[in-house]
Amino acid sequence: MRYCLLLAMLLWGCLCVAKERVSFPTEDGGTIYGNLYGEGDRAVVLAHGGRFTLESWDKQARSLEASGFRVLAIEFRGEGESHGGTAGSEGDEGRQQDILGAIRYLRKNGSKQVSVVGASMGGDYAARAAEVSPTAMDRLVLLSAGAYTTPRRMKGPKLYIIAREDANAEGPRLPRILARYRKARGPKKLVLLDGSAHAQFLFETDQSSRVLREILRFLLAP
């Protein structure tokens, strides 16, 4: 019953509470912008995929907020107003610093537990951040991500979620992600979904409720 109620909150969110536009520095001198939702000492950073923006998380962010989390959806450097601090750092290089900067911002503003949910590209940078700074985040969710970096050093729990038939120009994603998953440090969990939807596109399918339920259960676990 408890999870049914929480899932309903997660699906529909609390649309009456305004989000706040915030910015924070990165260690390399950049400035990253994001949308902040809610209050509390448990927080979640949302890192979007390459075909999405920070606004694409709005429904999930409001739902997590309704479940008691403070949520920060970030805008990576090179997108919108966000920028890196050094020449050549607008693209791939340094984006793990954007995630780490978001974590520091939340902790500085009262969050005692900070988890990261990264989708596709955002998940790959989140995995890199977990390896670069293994004590920064408490939990990590990789949504159709994790094929390039193995988080061996981070002690906190990790949740991998991917559709079995998810593929790109390089071929099926599952074998590559599974290889990294097997080498990742535990505790960890792998959730396989039906279909081929990739990352945040899963929220546009009939798998959406399960994805939300798995993420919520993982983030609320003791």
Description:
Strand 5 (113-119), helix 4 (121-132) and strand 6 (139-143) form a beta-alpha-beta unit. With 222 residues, this protein is α/β, with parallel strands linked by helices. The chain has a single domain (2-20, 42-69, 108-220), classed as Alpha/Beta hydrolase fold, catalytic domain (Rossmann fold), CATH 3.40.50.1820. The protein contains 6 helices and 10 strands. The chain has an 8-stranded mixed beta sheet with strand order 1-2-4-3-5-6-7-10, sandwiched between helices. The protein starts with a helix and ends with a helix. Helix 1 runs antiparallel to helix 2, helix 1 (2-12) packs across helix 6 and helix 3 crosses helix 4. It has helices at residues 2-12, 58-66, 95-108, 121-132, 173-183, 208-220, and strands spanning 20-25, 31-37, 42-47, 70-75, 113-119, 139-143, 158-163, 167-168, 171-172, 188-193.
CATH fold description:
Rossmann fold
The appropriate CATH architecture is: 3-Layer(aba) Sandwich
Strand order of the largest sheet: 1-2-4-3-5-6-7-10
Could you say which structural class the secondary elements and strand pairing correspond to? Answer: alpha/beta
The overall number of domains is 1
What's the helical proportion of residues?
Answer: 25-40%
**H/I helix tally:** 6
What is the arithmetic mean of pLDDT?
91
Give the topology, please:
Layout (H helix, E strand, L loop, with lengths): L1 H11 L7 E6 L5 E7 L4 E6 L10 H9 L3 E6 L19 H14 L4 E7 L1 H12 L6 E5 L14 E6 L3 E2 L2 E2 H11 L4 E6 L14 H13 L2
Parallel strand pairs: 3-4, 3-5, 5-6, 6-7, 7-10
Antiparallel strand pairs: 1-2, 2-4, 8-9
Helix pairs in contact: 1-2, 1-6, 3-4
